[in-house]
Each structure stands twice: as C-alpha cells, then as structure tokens.
Input
Amino acid sequence: MAFTRRHIGHGVGLRTAHFPELLAARPPVDWVEAISENFMSAGGRPLTVLEKVRRDVPVALHGVSLSIGSTDELSADYLDALEALARRIEPEWISDHLCWGSHGGRYAHDLWPLPFTAEALGHVVERVRRVQDRLGRQILLENVSSYLAFRAS
Output
C-alpha cells in the first residue's frame, strides 16, 4: 500500500462544547478530528453532529483503543464498530496510537509504550496489515510518550 496524504489545512478536535456552534454554521476550520470511540454507536446526538460536520469539512477519526501493540487478539467488536463508522463518515484518515492497552482480555484505558525491538516491530506490522485489510484503507499510527526504556530496546 503506497503512503499518500493530501494536505487538508488546519483542524481542531471535535468536542461536545463545540456542538451548538457546529450545528448552527459551517466549522471555521479546514477539518476536525473526532475520537472514534465517542461515535461508535447506532445513533444519538454526537453522531448526528459528526455527520453534519462531515458534510461541511473533512473528518479525521482518531482512536484510543485499537491496542495495536497488544499480544491480545485484535478486538473483532471494536473493528466492526470502527469499520461501520468509517463507512458512515468516510473520514479523510483513521489513526490510533502505536501502543498497547489491553492484556489478558482486559482493557486498561492507558497507552502503554512498546519496546524498540525487531520482534515488536514485526508484531505491529502484521497487526497493521490485518487492520488495513479489514478496513480497506491505510491507518496512521501516532507515537506515544515513553518515560522509561525497556532493557531489550
């Protein structure tokens, strides 16, 4: 898959405090970033706002729960919901964090860093391939802060 991104200008994060203004007028920005998990539902006000915004400007979906670096199996439920949201919104891009946040089937709601090893890289590359194949599009990964160094790195 070739890596291509067009420049779309400057954007802001879509927050509930912005909803009234965004429903009343076109966003005064080039694009908005929406936290994927906040819109993975069948309906409701947040999704209505996101659909309206998407008619006006490009949307980037940014997730916090993919856990691409985890050794747990990728969550089929999560990918189902993300795929449905992507079909509905047709985002400019989909991104998440290069980290892990689940272990033993439990999600910790944290963005844990990965060791810098060939094994970790191979693991992530395979999982990225599977996610991209599932979604039918490229994903972007954002580095997370790491305040420690693994012995194996």
The two ends are 28 Å apart (CA to CA). The first helix runs from residue 19 to 24. The mean pLDDT is 91. Residues 11-143 form a domain with the TIM Barrel fold (CATH 3.20.20.150).
